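I have been asked to look over a protein record a colleague put together. Alongside the sequence sits a line of tokens, each denoting a local backbone shape. I have pasted the whole thing underneath without changing anything:
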Amino acid sequence: ADAVNVGGFPTEERYAAAMRELEEACSEVGRDPRTILRSHFGMFMIGETQADVDEIAHKIDGAVAKELGLR
């Protein structure tokens, strides 16, 4: 592979762990991990006011929880 993307809105700790796992796997096969493009899936929200952003975040939180069967 030439690239790796960490999805699922990773925390800083999860992203760091994924990068350690990648580097360990590269070491096992003798590959330079610097040759692999690294990225992560993230998001941002824009609103005219903080209340707008809070409303968007609340809607997203509810939709994600529903999709995961948490609500």
The two ends are 37 Å apart (CA to CA).
